[in-house]
Specification:
The complex is a heterodimer of chains A (about 160) and B (about 375). In chain A, about 30% of the residues lie in helices and about 15% in strands. Chain A has about 160 residues and is α+β, with helices and mostly antiparallel strands. The model of chain A has no long low-confidence stretch (mean pLDDT about 75). Helix content of chain B is about 55%, strand content about 10%. Chain B has 17 helices and six strands. About 5% of the residues of chain B have low confidence. The chains are: A alpha+beta (about 160), B alpha/beta (about 375).
């Protein structure tokens, strides 16, 4: 059984990471899921060292980056990260968060304005874009039509 | 009011997208919605997203979402691909072999960021005389049901490299348009792939290979002309045009016409390229054929065509014929024809005839092999 924690630890195994245009992209090899973290969630995630509390994370981000992150925003980010299986164990949410579980409710409570950075985590779900691969020439071995430049696989040969 | 064709939208969106400086895009939201699936299907989602991302008016609109997500996926895929290439090359290094990497990974280096140029296979050329040795190294890692080692196609369990990866192993590069493999290796340069070591074609051979590959496959993929443009813009000052163009007049003409086309369609910067190469007369049928392909730049437009059996319905006949009919570029290059203004129909007929001859020869050879076995 997995226990929830109040000092979150970021998962590090089985993940592929990539920074792109201010976002952090994460591919979970075990779950075959891709996720996009905005700057706030990424900063929270990087500070999940298993020793720092949500309050501590908010202070660190504020001090180091000058980004005003409300402690409640950190909790929201932690919940998003937890749901995306990017933490080693689920976080123990404070009652305030538990009772305002939807994002809309939470943001209303925070009374968020442009002054407070909002955590956003998106699933990346689109049909896989085509890769650049060539195709079989006439006479090449094939299994299906898609293996052949002509689109015709006859028997085991491209026509 | 003129409405831009799909091909024109594709060209406008991809123009300059390989560069480090993101150029804003002048496109309506409706046009973006039209061009997005074309870019996704042809492997140019990341390039398209790069232009859209540099355009505040389009960046956050719903029509941009598919490209954005596609670009993100390709960025993650790039990490996996790079690790897979490193893994495969390291396997060969352990056996004392330094392969030549061509196409995908090697071309992606010419782009501002490697994720902009996706690739599915790891294309390797074995050093002269070491093809069998390379096969021996890779065979134990190949998934038997999905690999065809007899033709150099192996799907490997890349283990620590995070994925199953496809290796396309070559003895040589299309010998009709490229120098012998011994020459390619002599001229090749060393490259580090993470902690592993491989060879890359010299820039002259690289450009020639990318262009002839684009042509041999009928120029249907816009990404391949972006490859040409990215390479041309990054040519070193000491680039040897004589070596690249070769002493084959036909190949030289094709290379010049393709570079001129890249300039015309994609805005490739050619200020450093001799006018005899970058400003030549491009036959009208060449540009027309390319744009027609880009109107629907899908890898296999014919996957639903009926197989060899004689089509019974009239609608099937059209598909059946289309599947066999090479476009003017593929037909001409396939039989080493000239890039001139002469009609293309004779080349297309000759290409079909050559295809039938090859097919019969391949089937006959296989039957002989089966009989012997």
């Amino acid at each position: 059984m997995t226990h929830s924690v109040s000092r979150p630890l970021a998962r590090s195994e089985g993940l592929i990471l990539r920074e792109l245009d201010g976002e952090t992209l994460v591919y979970d090899r075990e779950r075959s899921e891709a996720t996009c973290l905005n700057e706030v969630v990424a900063k929270v995630w990087r500070r999940c060292d298993g020793a720092t509390t949500a309050e501590g994370i908010a202070e660190t981000i504020d001090e180091e980056h000058g980004i005003r992150v409300d402690e409640r925003s950190v909790w929201l980010a932690l919940e998003l990260l937890s749901n995306a299986h990017l933490l080693s164990a689920p976080v123990e949410l404070p009652s305030e968060i538990v009772h305002a579980r939807t994002r809309r409710q939470f943001l209303q409570r925070v009374g968020t304005t442009a002054a407070i950075a909002v955590p956003v985590l998106l699933s990346i779900t689109v049909p896989t874009p085509a890769q650049a691969a060539s195709c079989g020439a006439i006479g090449a071995f094939c299994e299906t039509n898609v293996h052949c430049c002509s689109g015709l696989c006859v028997g085991i040969r491209c026509l | 009011m003129n409405t831009a064709s799909n091909a024109q939208l594709v060209a406008a969106t991809l123009a300059g997208a390989w560069r480090a400086d993101g150029l804003p895009l002048r496109l309506s939201r409706g046009d973006l919605a039209r061009v997005s699936p074309l870019l996704m299907e042809s492997g140019a989602a990341a390039l398209g997203w790069r232009r859209v991302h540099a355009t505040p008016a389009l960046r956050d609109c719903p029509e941009a979402n598919t490209l954005c997500q596609g670009g993100r996926l390709l960025a993650l895929e790039d990490v996996r691909n790079c690790r897979a290439v490193e893994h495969v090359v390291a396997l060969l290094n352990d056996a004392g072999i330094e392969p030549l990497i061509v196409k995908g990974w090697s071309v992606a280096r010419a782009y501002a960021d490697s994720y902009l140029r996706p690739y599915g296979d790891i294309d390797l050329v074995a050093p002269p005389g070491q093809y069998d040795a390379v096969c021996e190294v890779l065979r134990p890692h190949a998934l038997p049901k999905r690999s065809k080692p007899e033709i150099g196609q192996m799907v490997l369990d890349c283990g620590i490299a995070w994925k199953v990866c496809t290796v396309d192993l070559h003895r040589h590069l299309n010998s009709a348009h490229m120098p012998p493999v011994e020459t390619l290796f002599e001229r090749s340069t060393h490259v580090s792939v993470g902690s592993a070591h491989a060879r890359l074609l010299c820039m002259e051979d690289q450009l020639r290979h990318v262009i002839t590959h684009f042509l041999r496959h009928g120029a249907w993929r816009p990404l391949w002309l972006c490859d040409v443009a990215a390479l041309v813009e990054g040519l070193p000052a000491d680039f040897d045009w004589t070596r690249c163009l070769s002493d084959d007049r036909h190949i030289a003409d094709w290379i010049a016409a393709t570079i001129t086309l890249a300039h015309r369609l994609l805005g490739c910067r050619v200020g450093h390229v001799p006018a005899s190469v970058a400003d030549v007369a491009v036959p009208a049928w060449f540009e027309r054929t390319v744009l027609r392909e880009w109107d629907a730049p899908f890898p296999i437009q014919l996957s639903n065509t009926p197989a060899l059996q004689i089509p019974r319905r009239l609608s099937d006949v059209r598909l059946w014929l289309r599947a066999r009919w090479p476009n003017a570029v593929r037909a001409t290059v396939g039989i080493r024809g000239a890039c001139n203004t002469a009609p293309r129909l004779p080349y297309q007929i000759a290409h079909v005839g050559m295809g039938i001859r090859r097919y019969i020869a391949a089937v006959a050879a296989e039957r002989r092999a089966r009989t012997r076995a």
